[in-house]
Specification:
Involved in beta-(1-->2)glucan export. Transmembrane domains (TMD) form a pore in the inner membrane and the ATP-binding domain (NBD) is responsible for energy generation. Keywords: ATP-binding, Nucleotide-binding, Transport. This is ABC transporter ATP-binding protein. This protein has 10 helices and 10 strands. α3 crosses α5, α3 runs parallel beside α6 and α6 packs parallel to α7. The longest helix is centred in the last third of the chain and has 18 residues. The protein is globular, with a radius of gyration of 18 Å. The mean pLDDT is 88. The protein binds adenosine-5'-triphosphate. The site of adenosine-5'-triphosphate has 11 residues, from β2 and α1.
């Protein structure tokens, strides 16, 4: 079976720093892969190399077998790949619904959407479905800036799903989210994974969240893959315990 995402020997250097040093892994459709590792080990750089924010210094990235190395984010969006960012990308003055509509426009690749602001473009129905799915009904008309951090993370995740993506890369979705909202977020992500067969790669520092959400976990250390396996295997891996979990 062709992997939905296939990363082969990707490297990325910034001057003298090798942030990602020959990383290979693949993700099958319907999987939730966790990506963990100490600060500065190269997780975000790897995401940026996969999603076209950065061009890798070496290596190849394939989506559904198609070579996409170095292609622009808008091109990846068209192939059904989407992402969230570590720092939220919501527009604080726009309502929750308008943020979703704008995200839908961006997934369609309309470059001017950020300048022109949201126009319905037939996206209100999809936005309202996402609002329902992520249980944000009571907040639909509120400015996004007034939402709690956890609610904004839910909105951010909902925005990533506006284009009906097959593969979503989530960058620290649990960061700064309180335990109650965290449970909601996990439950919604699992539901969207099951109901839509959406595939995820999730960078996260919250170990409990990763281990309970993900089908497999990849551990990075100093730009390389230290281990990849099921959560229980990762928890029991001596190299992982020494390099990361033990600290
Ligand atoms: N644009 C850049 N220019 C120079 N160095 C960079 C750049 N981006 C990242 N780095 C360096 O690359 C290394 C990996 O950083 P990266 O942000 O990918 O790690 P990370 O695992 O995502 O960290 P965190 O968990 O803190 O988000 C670090 O040493 C960082 O300082």
């Amino acid at each position: 079976m062709t992997a939905i995402l296939d990363v082969r020997d990707v490297k990325k250097s910034f001057g003298g720093i090798t942030a990602v040093n020959g990383v290979s892994f693949d993700v099958q459709e319907g999987e939730i892969l966790g990506l963990i590792g100490p600060n500065g080990c190269g997780k975000s750089t790897l995401f940026n190399c996969i999603l076209g924010q950065l061009v890798p210094s070496a290596g190849e990235v394939r989506v559904d077998g198609k070579l996409v190395t170095g292609q622009r984010p808008s091109e990846l969006n068209r192939l059904g790949v989407s992402r969230t960012f570590q720092l939220l990308q919501v527009f604080p003055k726009l309502s929750v619904r308008d943020n979703l509509i704008l995200a839908g426009q961006e997934h369609r690749g309309s470059m001017l959407s950020r300048l022109l602001g949201p126009s319905d473009a037939g996206l209100t129905t999809t936005a309202d479905q996402m609002i329902g799915f992520f249980k944000l009904e009571h907040l639909a008309n509120e400015p996004a800036g007034g939402l709690s951090c956890g609610q904004q993370k839910l909105l951010d995740a909902a925005m990533a799903f506006m284009g009906g993506p097959r593969l979503v890369l989530l960058d620290e979705p649990a960061g700064g989210v309180n335990p109650t909202m965290l449970g909601d977020l996990k439950e919604r992500l699992i539901a969207i994974n099951r109901e839509r067969r959406a595939t995820f790669v999730v960078i996260e520092h919250n170990m409990e969240f990763v281990m309970s959400l993900c089908s497999r976990v990849m551990v990075m250390a100093e730009g390389k893959v230290l281990a990849i396996g099921k959560p229980d295997e990762i928890r029991a891996n001596p190299a992982v315990i020494e390099a990361y979990l033990g600290h």
